[in-house]
Write a structure and sequence with these properties.
Elements (H helix, E strand, L loop, with lengths): L14 H16 L1 H11 L11 H14 L4 H9 L11 H9 L5 H14 L23 H12 L12 H11 L7 H4 L5
Helix pairs in contact: 2-8, 3-4, 3-7, 4-6, 4-8, 5-6, 6-7
């Protein structure tokens, strides 16, 4: 039988209860790479109207990033940038950034968080909107990096003929990053290189 906490309200918890919960959370976190990979595979179900599935789009983005010589964290950001689509189609960028944020440097999380707004440059004017909405971010230290992320990888990755790498090629990277100690300054404050 599984151990459970003694409380019915958190304020009644004991040291032992919270030690148990910490141990359970650690055990769950060890399986996080498999959860992330399963969520990526779910993107293969398609998105109506596009010529590729969201999984294929993500693989194309990550492949382009890798071929452009991006570092591992940016490649992972390119792979996971749309992982929030399933649960938050109108706020997917924030969800994807939240998934990445405990494991990658701040720059990568920011780029992923802003890619939704940055991408409007390519389509908003066709829908009666302002394609330059991203200019509200201009002047931010990572604006140019986010613009390049979108220009070179994201907006370019809807091509059914593009020879993207398979998900299996990125699995070691997913496993490596998502088994890091979360919120470790060694990674969060690191500079690329």
């Amino acid at each position: 039988m599984n151990k459970v906490v003694s409380f019915r309200q958190m304020k009644a918890g004991t040291r032992e209860d919270y030690q148990l919960l910490d141990a359970e959370a650690d055990e769950y976190a060890r399986g996080l790479p498999a959860v992330v990979l399963a969520a990526l595979r779910q993107l293969g179900r398609g998105l109506q109207g596009y010529q590729v599935t969201r999984l294929e789009h993500s693989l194309q983005c990550a492949t382009r990033a890798k071929l452009d010589g991006a570092d591992d964290e940016l490649i992972l950001g390119a792979l996971l940038h749309d992982i929030g689509d399933e649960l938050a189609p109108y706020n997917h960028a924030a969800v994807a950034a939240a998934v990445l944020r405990p494991y990658v440097r701040e720059e990568v999380a920011w780029i992923v968080a802003q890619h939704g707004l940055m991408q409007t440059y390519y389509y908003a004017h066709h829908q009666g909107g302002d394609r330059n909405m991203r200019d509200q971010l201009r002047g931010h230290r990572w604006f140019d990096a986010a613009a390049a992320f979108c220009e070179n990888w994201d907006q370019a990755s809807f091509d059914p003929d593009y020879p993207s790498m398979p998900l299996e090629a990125f699995e070691p990277l997913v496993r490596q990053v998502f088994t890091r100690k979360p919120h470790d300054p060694l990674y969060l404050l690191a500079t690329p290189g």
